[in-house]
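Appendix B. Raw example, untouched.
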Amino acid sequence: MSADNAYPSSSEGRLSRVAIKFTEWSERFIPDAFIFALIATLIIFVLSMTVAQAPALAVLNGWGKGFWELIPFTMQMALIIITGYVLATARPVYRLISRLAAAPQTPRGAVLMVALFSMITSWFNWGFSLIISAILAREVAKRNKLVDYRALAAASFLGQGSMWAQGISGSANLQMCTAESLQPAIRRVVENGGVVPGGLIGLQHTAFLWQTLLTVVIEIILVGAIVWFYTPLGAKAKTAKALNVNLGSDPPELPTQARTPGEWLEYSPLLNTLIGTMGITYLLTTLLRAPSTISAITLNNINFFFLMVGVLAHGTPHRLMNAFREATPAVWGAILQFPFYAGIAGMITSTGLNEKIAGFFVSISNPITFAPIISIYSTILGVFVPSGGSKWIIEAPYVLTAAHDLKVHLGWVVSVYNLGEALANLIQPFWMVPILTILGLKARDVMGYTAVVFIVLLPAVLIMVTLLGMTLPYPL
């Protein structure tokens, strides 16, 4: 049977065919995410003049001023991707992955292990998880010749499609607790005249809420059960060989010897050891001086930690520079798009459009139904704006304004947004690209499996955000 033949006539096969058709349609008719950023800019410009009745010059001024207010956040998001890649491709990490890949003995066990690994690591750092989970899936396929390669590839992406945004590297979580990453206008919305002094929402009110942690545990259990049962066995399984995928060999060793005296420091571990030790020491002292461990977890400190660990893991400046060079092509989208979304947020907040949109959400919801409505809205918007950080810049002004009006826990609103945002990744192939490149597949090969997870997780998420939200007070 060739790799292009029809899928089996099981329920899993039917869902896979539906997802493949959806992917084919989206690849044909849905433009790149940057096009949506440009279209959204024009739409918000018009809405600001019509709905908010702001003069055109005032809207233009809000757009231009807002455009550059998130340059630090843009760089921080780019570094999350780069440092995650750098750490994931370090030789010591690769050797650990190779050992882990040999552990599962059955195809279902292999797919389950990759899924659990992807979900758990994504909670800590989604950039690291995105790359290393794909590497793990490839190494598992080398050792387990009977595993369905499509299911394995889909499993490596499930962290990005479930709990990445709820973790300590979640874009919205970190933006809300890091002053330099948050536009002053959004901080004023959060502060709401002194209701939340400082206008920041710490991780203890988002990622570390027991309600948020409970959703993470439930998703791990639920997704683990889904991948166990959706993994094809026997004749229904399509291995890497059946899909004509060349799994390749171990990554080549880079040169370890300097060719000239001037290159000696590039190939010596001396500088990496000293700088890495300094960095880890600084972080430890920062942690000890902080009022609490959670308060020390900021976007800058997370990036600094992964960078310093990468410095130590790569051993020499030569290896580190090579890893950064390989990682930088993955960040161009964030660098290009984030300023445009910051400009959109600038128009929304400077013209009072956020209050108009918030009024709409208030009119169609109450304190109990607000959470599931926002979760669904974030999922739908995430299909068109597939970036948790940039989309939150758009949503935050009016979603948080509505939360104040309805007296809903502000940190839980961020978590609700995160749950909906992650779901969109299961049916939007934008963030699958790095994984698919490593694994030698196309989105159509894995969308059948991620669609199954989406169908099961969506109602579960709506139930969780509704019931758990009822246990939280306003404002924090």
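End of appendix B.
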